[in-house]
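Annotated sample (chain length 161).
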Amino acid sequence: MSPRTPWGTYHRIADALRSRIADGDLAPGDAIPSESALGEEFGVARTTVRRALAELASERLVETVPGTGRVVCTTDERESTPGDAPPPSRHRRIAADLRERIACGDLAPGDALPGEAALVRRYGVSRRTARQALSELEGAGLVIAVHGKGRFVQGPATPRG
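Output written by the structure step:
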């Protein structure tokens, strides 16, 4: 069993990448290093890196480009108004649906989230898309992954099982 990453490590990784973007070390259009490369650099698991990248994506600093990976957004992309934004991607729609279920109490703290396979069946998407949605919720601090058990709504309650 691997040692647990200290809580909040993904925030430090996001801060480091934010600094690289602000300093111009990563310019608009530049590819972000791969999850595995960032994991090696910071000495963390890929799930921790995904949380950091999800945080940057929610701030519109990075975006996923099919066939390329994650890239730094241009200033125009960062400053575009919601009316100018393209329709949300499939993983963002799934994440929004799950956020709504959490907000309305349908999924309470400690409750298990549907797994990747269940999301694939319900939304008709790939496992990767389902994983991106769950990763976005983890990055937002709404969900915690418990190795070998699944993902649970973050809160004072502990996962059941």
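Annotation: The beta strands are 62-65, 69-72, 143-146, 150-153.
Annotation: The longest strand covers residues 62-65.
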